[in-house]
Amino acid sequence: MSETESGLVTAGDPEAIAEAIQTEVEQVLVGNEGTVEHLTIALLTRGHLLLEGVPGVAKTTIANLFARASGLGFQRIQMTPDILPADITGTNVYRQNTGEFELQRGPVFTNLVVADEINRATPKTQSALLEAMQERQVTIEGDTLSLPEPFMVVATQNPIEMEGVFELPEAQRDRFQFKLTVDLPDRDGEAELLDRFDTNPNLGPDTVEQVVTEDALLEARTQVTNTYVAPPVKSYVLDLVGATRSHPDVRHGASPRATITFIDGAKARAAVHGRSYVIPDDVKALAPAILAHRLVLETDAELSDVTPQAIVEDVLEETAIPDVEPSEMATPKEA
């Protein structure tokens, strides 16, 4: 691992960056390795995450710890029914002492934005994030402003609360690269967490330090884009996405954006695992987080309590994995 004397990862090595961030975050949290890895993949591929879980499982804390370890600016927006789009993007404020309007930038102007309980905001306010997530810019009273780079949105939602919430529309869900469920810890994990906070009641995001430079992150992004994806792996992605569209319980399957997300995410996963090429296991590991939230089920399936997660499991089981040697996936075939 290339580091300076201060311990910062300065080389654009995705594996070293992922390892450093994981180690730093684990000083506070226990048992969230998969979530942190997906956050790292999203950061390296310009993606956004939707975290779902019951209250108290540290959804916001995970994002805050990740931002601090990555050296990212961090802002949390508490979404409520009365929050307005301008509360997110900003607005022009009249200054009486100067007689002029001054741009007041909203909390979206940072590297990592947490939209806490996003489904509590109205559809109009939710849509204020659409341009930011897709175009990485916002328009305030006719002026288009670029957002900082890197930029990512981590939204959270509570699956057990049904009153006073507005379900995310399909267009909004499709813009999230991954949707993850943050589960309750097992007994051993919770016991370790209890011991940590008993020893240090002030344990929290302030405990975590930056472990990677911005230049290293940007260099790692370039390395990820150079990761090789062999034709059989691309065909596997197309088969998986196509299977969601032809499944009898699905009214609308995954979009082409999901197909691209598979390739980008699999490249990053391969890179953080120290490979310069993608294998089918990279695709398979990311499938639940990429596909489940994009599926729109048939009415009969919903009434029968069929879940998108169960459909993804069916698709993974029924779709043939490419039977190719690692050497065929590692290098382009000679013409």
Describe this structure in words.
This protein is an alpha/beta fold. The chain folds into two domains: 14-217, Rossmann fold, CATH 3.40.50.300; 227-330, Helicase, Ruva Protein, domain 3, CATH 1.10.8. It is built from 15 helices and eleven strands. The protein has helices at 14-25, 33-44, 59-70, 85-89, 123-126, 128-135, 170-173, 187-199, 214-225, 231-246, 256-272, 280-291, 299-303, 308-318, 326-330, and strands at 49-52, 74-78, 90-95, 100-105, 112-116, 137-140, 143-146, 152-157, 178-181, 250-252, 296-297. The strands form four sheets. A five-stranded parallel beta sheet has the order 2-5-8-1-9. The radius of gyration is 21 Å and the shape is globular. The model has no long low-confidence stretch (mean pLDDT 89). Residues 45-186 form the AAA+ ATPase domain. Keywords: ATP-binding, Nucleotide-binding. It comes from Natronosalvus hydrolyticus. One of its GO terms (molecular function) is ATP hydrolysis activity. This is MoxR family ATPase.
